[in-house]
Design goal:
Shape: globular
Structural class: alpha+beta
CATH topology of the largest domain: Beta-galactosidase, Chain A, domain 5
Radius of gyration: 27 Å
Helix content: 10-25%
Number of strands: 38
Strand content: 25-35%
Largest sheet: 10 strands, antiparallel
CATH architecture of the largest domain: Distorted Sandwich
CATH class of the largest domain: Mainly Beta
Distance between the termini: 40 Å
Length: 727
């Protein structure tokens, strides 16, 4: 791995064994993008920048009509002086003008990652990382912009972010503070994104780029279920198994934008950062502003190659260190069994049955606090409802622990109900704009996390419960988007900062609590996958993937999220049927295998199971416990993307064994004969089928595949289990 500056060619070359990334300096001033892709040993500039006298082009040097910023392949945009493509930054000066003129002045190369103050980022734990800082200065306003590039030795990964510093004497306003931009010299890409809605998250969208701007974004206050902060550009021929993929993933949990512009002369500009529609930052003299980090991931091995890199680096360099190699417990969550109707006696009966089944973690969901009998009150009143839990949370936790299980508790810390003691006492703690009504969602408002008092209140509230040492797991929920985003604690000139300050406040709370209680397992939730992003995963080792627990729906949702996150991060529960979200009936076997394809849990009334269901659930739990390491830490590969009938397949594999799961989706007539190649087993090994005893080479399974028998009936699931054997 190396970062080299060639003074002869005026180029920076970032490289490791897998990739190269080359940045040029043009005219001693502008940063140009020269190459990103497979590793090359050195860069000579064979792919020259073509300069042509273009109509309507403006020229920084009037004597050079062939040189124009509007066609130069750049690493960061310019402002107001000739680059008319989508911008990566915009600055308003104290006199109200929107123009800047940044020039390259210096660079620094070092063998570590720089810290991002107050923001999550990829870590560099027990791994080699090199960083390039490139400083540009606008001498007219004494503004400094620094571009950061970090390359990992063992991953085809580069991270990017930007820092702005006001070295002048006047206040300036950042109206757009993007984290990265790159001009790729091609337009023959498909744009791949993950889109959706509540209970219908992470649908894979793939469409060819076309002239103009294509974008995804959120202005909802969170990353949102509508769009994952992720874009991939792939060749039209790219599949799960082969082809180039250039992927971009934003480590941020608030409003974002990711966009691609196919411009007039055959390049694709990719830009990602905080959404400027809802952002502004007042940058006083001698102050800094750091943008969140973007992860750039190149794969020449298709989407599975992209995913393997994301899975590996997120598991080992993003989530809390304590949980990076720690198995997750099989849990039982009370929500769909009880909703708000809970009492201690019934909970302990459920806990008895859960312990008998082999459950490892008992989670008390919503309804245990304040006067919380519906979702219309009590958020913010985090005191125990003693009519429901007469002996308190600590005693209930002790009872669960005595049954051999861990104990977990649900919170929705960021919210406040109008019908609450907290709102009566502190109405100014809710997000609000003077003279405008407070819009409720789910009969709740949102706390103003930009306020230090609110941050401290939530830290103290959580600390009061966690300090006993009896809570092993927290489910952190967030069930509405932001409206009336204003704060009573900030000047009118800073009100457009509140969206970002909200996220910074959230990160401060999470950073404080997770560092104070590093052994408590936090599960991220926002009505399921509504804020499932790398920013939240920095603090929480897993996410409740979707409120939709239906097996058919989950086959699509979990498949989509697996583009970015490993199964161990995807909370997946077996619920009762008919399913509470869509009314569908699927077999317990299918529900079990679908949930095992994520992070296994249950969400149903275990006291109402039949004898057959009880026995089946015990078998599921025993099987999962036996092979938990494979399911949670094995390599995960997608073998068949859901088709028109929702049929799909995926593989869990390690050095000892493999499990293939095939989901047939909807039954159909005249079904074609299907031979499914396994593709990722060891070609030189022999495997034995655990059910039939048949021995077969990995090469045969990979290439000839397995026959999928004709299946009559909807929503059936097949499981193939092979163990590597010694002959």
């Amino acid at each position: 791995m190396a970062i080299i500056f060639d003074s002869h060619s005026n180029c920076f070359h970032l490289s490791n064994k897998d990739i190269s990334y080359v940045i040029g300096i043009e005219k001693g001033k502008y940063l140009t993008h020269r190459y990103w892709g497979k590793h090359i040993p050195f860069f000579t500039g064979s792919a020259e920048i073509q300069e042509i006298d273009r109509g309507f082009a403006t020229n920084p040097n009037p004597e050079e009509r062939i040189f124009s910023l509007n066609s130069l392949p750049l690493e960061t945009s310019t402002q107001g002086n000739g680059d008319h493509r989508i911008a990566n930054y915009q600055i308003r000066s104290s006199n109200g003008t929107n123009i800047s003129d940044f020039s390259y002045v210096s660079h620094d190369i070092y063998n570590h990652k720089s810290e991002l103050p107050g923001l999550p980022q990829l870590k560099a734990e027990n791994i080699k990382v090199s960083t390039l800082e490139i400083s540009l200065v606008d001498g007219y306003q004494d503004l400094e912009m620094t571009l950061f590039y970090s390359i990992y030795e063992d991953y085809p990964i580069i991270t990017r972010h930007v820092a702005f510093k006001n070295n002048g004497k006047s206040t300036v306003y950042l109206e757009n503070a993007g984290s990265m931009m790159i001009d790729l010299p091609r337009t023959d890409f498909d744009m791949v994104t993950l889109n959706g809605s509540h209970t219908h998250e992470a649908n894979i969208s793939r469409q060819p780029l076309h002239a103009g701007i294509q974008k995804i974004e959120s202005n909802r206050g969170t990353s949102s279920p509508q769009h994952q902060p992720f874009i991939a550009l792939a060749e039209a021929s790219t599949t799960e198994f082969n082809g180039d993929v250039f992927a971009f993933h934003f480590i941020y949990s608030g409003n974002f934008i990711g966009q691609v512009e196919v411009e007039q002369y055959g390049s694709s500009r990719v830009e990602m950062g905080i959404n400027p529609e809802t952002f502004e930052w007042k940058l006083e003299p001698n102050e800094n502003f750091h943008t969140p980090e973007v992860v750039l991931n190149y794969s020449p091995y298709g989407f599975n190659g992209m995913s393997q890199t994301f899975h590996d680096i997120y598991q080992n360099q993003l989530i809390p260190q304590y949980f990076q190699a720690r198995e997750r417990p099989i849990l039982l969550n009370t929500w769909e069994a009880n909703y708000f109707d809970i009492n201690e006696t019934e909970l302990l009966v459920q806990a008895d049955q859960a312990a008998e089944l082999g459950i490892e973690l008992f989670v008390l969901d919503d309804g245990w606090f304040g006067q919380r009998d519906t979702d219309e009150s009590s958020l913010g009143d985090w005191y125990v409802n003693t009519s429901k839990i007469p002996n308190g949370i600590d005693h209930l936790a002790d009872e669960v622990h005595e049954r051999g299980m861990q104990f977990g508790l649900w919170f929705e810390p960021e919210m406040i109900s109008k019908n609450s003691q907290l709102f009566e006492k502190h109405p100014e703690w809710a997000l609000q704009v003077p003279h405008y009504p407070m819009t409720e969602g789910r009969r709740q408002l949102v706390l103003d996390l930009s306020q230090e008092k609110v941050q401290n209140f939530l830290i103290d509230t959580l600390d009061a419960y966690l300090s006993s040492g009896k809570i092993d797991y927290i489910k952190w929920d967030m069930n509405r988007h932001l409206t009336e985003v204003g704060s009573t604690q900030f000047d009118h000139s800073q009100q457009k900062e509140i969206y970002h300050r909200y996220v910074l406040g959230l990160y401060h709370i999470l950073d404080t609590i997770t560092k104070r209680y590093p052994h408590c397992l936090f599960e991220n939730c926002s009505s399921g996958g509504g804020r499932f992003d790398p920013g939240m995963m920095y603090y929480m080792a897993q996410t409740w993937t979707s409120d939709n627990t239906d097996a058919l729906s989950r086959s699509v949702i979990q498949y989509g999220f697996s583009y970015l996150y490993p199964p161990i991060m995807l909370g997946a529960h077996v619920s009762s049927v008919p399913n509470h979200q869509v009314g569908r009936i699927t077999s317990l076997k299918t529900r079990g295998l679908m949930a095992m394809s994520g992070n296994l849990g249950y969400e149903l009334d275990v006291t109402q199971l039949s004898v057959e269901e009880t026995n089946e659930m015990k078998k599921q739990i025993d099987f999962y416990k036996t092979y938990k390491n494979l399911f949670q830490f094995g390599r995960f590969y997608r073998l068949q993307q859901p088709n028109a009938y929702f049929a799909s397949a995926w593989l869990f594999e390690n050095e000892h064994e493999a499990v293939l799961i095939y989901f047939n989706g909807l039954a159909r007539p005249a079904v074609p004969v299907t031979h499914l190649p396994v593709k990722y087993l060891d070609n030189h090994a022999v495997y034995q089928d655990e059910d039939t005893g048949q021995k077969v080479s990995g090469a045969e399974l990979n290439n000839a595949g397995v026959t999928i028998p004709r299946i009559k009936g909807d929503f059936e699931t097949l499981r193939f289990h092979w163990k590597k054997i010694k002959l």
